[in-house]
Design a protein that fits this description.
It is a single chain. Helix content is 42%, strand content 19%. By secondary structure, it is α+β, with helices and mostly antiparallel strands. The protein has a 6-stranded antiparallel β-sheet with strand order 1-2-8-3-6-9, with helices on one face. Strands 5-4-7 form a 3-stranded antiparallel β-sheet. Helix 6 crosses helix 7. It is globular and about 50 Å long. The N terminus is likely disordered.
Length: 298
């Protein structure tokens, strides 16, 4: 199998030899329609060091489903990233990212295709916005993994439809991605503490006055400052985290929808199912059936 041309900086197998991975595939992008150059799932990746910034020479997408770290673009702008982050890497754009101490878990794809050049030319993906946030994490990790698997088949079999399915996934991701603040906002200690306080809340109704006190502000001031820092309201942030946990439970535990609703503090399974469908796009039972077919409640 031929390797990509020299202008590209695609990591070779030797560079990933010591990275704990589930799979890594290399491919050749057909010249007319393009395709996958490389894709994989890394269980503990430390990333690209700041002093070794690279340019893939192609488009790359990295979805982090566990852990946190940093992302730095070619202009030196750096921001914090965490689970639920999708990194967009552009050809000709140097970058660095990762967690050099603890590593993180990711699914990634490097792809060279005219359709991505069209997306960029029309402003659907922008170099000025290389960080998207997609939650619930289990849902988007499963969706991204399937999109990568399908697109990889295009490289092997020459079929076009998997590449079109990847575009469908990217369109869905673009529509659902929440806004992210970069630079100083992501580095704001108050914002990091506020997210920690929110994520530490037990199931059930939130005592917003107590949350505000923990963040040394009034309830109204907390709502306004949290929205400025994260781009979403505290209530929506809270619900997203609950839906993320719901996805995890549906995929890893033999619990009924009723039991999951109770565990997450919902008053009844109907209300839980309604909120789940609003955020994920599928009812809980359908989500489990489609993405975790081997899992069923006891």
């Amino acid at each position: 199998m031929d390797m990509p041309e020299k202008s590209m900086c695609i990591p070779d197998k030797s560079m990933l030899r010591e990275v704990d991975n589930e799979f890594v595939h290399y491919g050749d992008a057909p010249p007319q329609f393009g395709g996958i150059l490389m894709c994989g799932r890394l269980l503990k990746n430390y990333g690209v060091p700041r002093e070794e910034m690279r340019d893939l020479g192609a488009y790359g997408f990295v979805y982090i489903d566990s852990g946190n770290g940093f992302f730095r673009d070619g202009k030196g702008c750096e921001q914090d990233v965490s689970s639920g982050t999708l990194l967009l890497l552009f050809p000709g754009e140097r970058h660095a990212y990762g967690n050099p101490r603890d590593g993180w878990r990711e699914t990634f794809v490097v792809i060279d295709s005219p359709f991505l050049k069209t997306w960029e030319a029309t402003g659907l993906i922008r170099r000025s916005k290389p960080v998207w946030h997609l939650t619930p994490v289990d849902y988007w990790q499963a969706r991204f993994r399937r999109a990568v698997d399908l697109a990889a088949r295009h490289t092997i079999g020459g079929d076009l439809w998997p590449l079109f399915r990847f575009q469908e996934w990217l369109a869905e991701a673009r529509a659902c991605a929440s806004p992210r603040r970069s630079g100083k906002a992501d580095a704001d200690p108050w914002a990091r503490n506020a997210r920690h306080v929110m994520e530490s809340q037990p199931p059930g109704p939130v005592d917003w006055a107590s949350v505000a006190r923990a963040c040394k502000t009034s309830p109204d001031g907390f709502r306004k400052r949290f929205r400025r820092a994260t781009g979403i309201s505290p209530a929506r942030f809270r619900t997203r985290r609950l839906m993320d946990e719901a996805c995890r439970l549906l995929g890893t535990e033999d619990l009924t929808v009723q039991e999951i609703a109770d565990q997450l503090g919902f008053c009844d399974p109907f209300h839980f199912s309604k909120r789940f469908k609003e955020f994920v796009g599928l009812p809980p039972k359908e989500f489990r059936k489609r993405y975790f077919p081997g899992r069923s409640p006891r």
